[in-house]
Amino acid sequence: MLGLNRQLVQLEKEGKEIKVGLIGCGQMGRGMIAQIESMKGMRVAATADLRTDIIQNAYMSAGVEPQQIVTTNDIETAERTIKEGKVVASTDVSMVTALPGVDVIVDATGVPNLGAEIAWKTIMNKKHIVMLNVEADITVGPLLHQMATASNVVYTGSAGDEPGCIMELYDFADALGFEIVALGKGKNNALNYEANPDTAATEAKEKGSNPKMLASFQDGTKTMVEMNAVANATGFLPDKPGMHGPSGTVKELPDIFRLQEEGGILSNKKIVDYVNGVAPGVFAIISSDKEEVNHEMNYLKMGPGPNYILFRPYHLTSLETPISVARAYLQQEATIAPWYGLQAETVATAKKDLQPGDRLDGIGGFTVYGTLYNQAEAKAANALPIGLVDPNVIVKRAVKKGEILTYDDIEQQNESTIWKLRSLQEKSF
């Protein structure tokens, strides 16, 4: 089989292209549009966002002429536009997911409930779905993956996101027969459980990012969510609630991630974790019981063993998403998916003392952060998944700062799509 780059060139030679429908034109979406405009055999044919001026600016910044951008919410007009080789800007998500001329949908919204709804509609429309929305994936991904398989389409996470990059290392090591001890990522900033949009505002302004999104990185939620996705894809589990989160250099990690009786920090092998001090980057700690393999690894300057590190020092976020689009369309393969079902759960933990009547404001907000548990522990505690947290959820009894929230602690008003899918998932598995 030709490599993806050669297959894309061949598509273009045949006068064809993979037509992408993008939902969400924030930083991730804009970057993806620009990258795809540089590629062969692929184009973002339609984009939906609350503001069409943002979409227009994204296309023009990528080199698309203004007259080639048609703003419409009418599906017939949009389909005609795509056939003419132009691109569509729309505020109608449902229209973009239903467009016959679109082959693959990419969700770049970052909103769990919206992401779940987008994936559901995409699969119902018999299209491949690429999720940049890891929060939705860890909440209802097993159900969506099962639905996609039954519909003969691909449900996948994205290359460039850290879970996807970790999966590349895992697949490489697993195919070669190495024992995989640990999978992990670097954390970019010091853990601050109290981070919120106000405390993150100044740095967010300097970086041109969303304060709520930045707070979700600082309070650890994003790290927990990402390693949750890896757990569901591989069957690996957090060694303890919240993971260890040690500090160390790349060179030190093979010794850090050893069993406690061997001088390391682990109670178990096949774990997921994160490290302060190696960001940006993702890693796999691998081992072998074969003398010749260890001799060769030593010769190749991989270290003295028995553990070795595979380290990737970069991830290009949405700029790599087109790789997952191409794999889904050309090879019917996922970059990463919850093949092992719900192995772990990122549960809502009180960021401050919560009182009856308080509304939970979502990921990166003022009320909760996420803590990664194995699924059995989370279920035994009746813990509330972080992906179900939104302003429709109201606290009905006091919860102390640092305590996990349970389903018994809250009540849900106006049941959202992700809540309905989660309920269906729990009945199905």
From TrEMBL:
User: Which Gene3D superfamilies does the protein's record reference?
Assistant: NAD(P)-binding Rossmann-like Domain
InterPro entries attached here? Asp/hSer_DH_NAD-bd (IPR005106), DRL_cat (IPR048423), NAD(P)-bd_dom_sf (IPR036291), SAF (IPR013974)
Domain of life, per the record? Bacteria
Residues in SAF domain copies: 345-411
PANTHER family, per database record: SAF DOMAIN PROTEIN, STRU PROTEIN
Please identify the protein, giving its name as recorded.
SAF domain-containing protein
What species is this protein from?
Lysinibacillus piscis
